[in-house]
Design a protein that fits this description.
about 240 residues, 9 helices
């Protein structure tokens, strides 16, 4: 015959310290700091709440509400990132060596002009080439603009912290557009295609058609810096 449970034994209540260690999976690994500075402060605050007088919300420095979303180090990282994005207009974007030993290089203005001039014929060379040219324009135009915008928002003076972070969040979030556009150019290169006049460029060991190999061979530091710095800004937007 099964024995009846022992109901005479008193249940032991868990200790507050054990409860704090359990709630939130080690959110409170040690004894939490008391919110009230004194019992008198707690009683005074409760009296104000009951009477409807005075403030009904209190903050403490150790509260998560007081955590700053961007510290001094983050501010300088965004400053450096925005400056690099702006300075991509001075970086070479296309660079390769020809069979006669000379180096052919295009800076941002020259590469932008060449891309704009060949945009119409790019789509006739294949959907991958056409979309790559279009997304390449997004990267080339968006990178310096977002860099300048980010610098302006980082060092501006706002009426409140909310207004400051609201203004800064916009260029940082738009950096996702530049990053994914640059990433899409690499993905689309696997579709291949033909670049008009590509065989006349005189590249050393040039691939027969446009593809990931040809893209990596002709790209210089400009596109890589644009995609990398835009990713840094985009990731930071999630903290604001």
């Amino acid at each position: 015959m099964a024995q009846a449970p022992n109901t005479s034994q008193d249940k032991q209540e868990p200790k507050p310290e054990d409860r704090y260690r359990f709630i939130g999976f080690d959110v409170f690994p040690a004894k939490p700091e008391s919110f009230w500075k004194s019992d008198a402060e707690a009683q005074q605050f409760a009296a104000k709440v009951r009477t409807g007088l005075g403030e009904s919300v209190l903050h403490r420095e150790f509260s998560l509400l007081e955590t700053k979303p961007m510290g001094r180090a983050d501010k300088w990282i965004l400053t450096l990132t925005g400056a690099v994005m702006l300075l991509t207009v001075a970086f070479p974007w296309i660079s390769y060596r020809t069979m006669d030993g000379s180096t052919y290089s295009l800076s941002w203005p020259s590469a932008l002009g060449a891309l704009l001039g060949g945009l119409g014929t790019a789509f006739s060379s294949g959907i991958g080439v056409g979309l790559s040219a279009l997304l390449g324009l997004v990267v080339m135009l968006g990178t310096p603009l977002l860099g300048a915008w980010t610098l302006a928002m980082v060092w501006r003076r706002a009426k409140s912290a909310d207004a400051y972070f609201l203004g800064l969040r916009m260029p940082l979030k738009l950096s996702y557009v530049v990053f994914f556009s640059g990433l899409a150019v690499f993905v689309l290169s696997f579709l291949g295609g033909d670049i008009p006049g590509y065989s006349s460029w005189g590249l050393i060991e040039a691939p027969e058609h446009y593809g990931i190999g040809a893209l990596v061979q002709i790209l210089s530091m400009g596109p890589y810096m644009a995609v990398g710095m835009s990713l840094v800004c985009a990731v930071k937007s999630g903290d604001l």
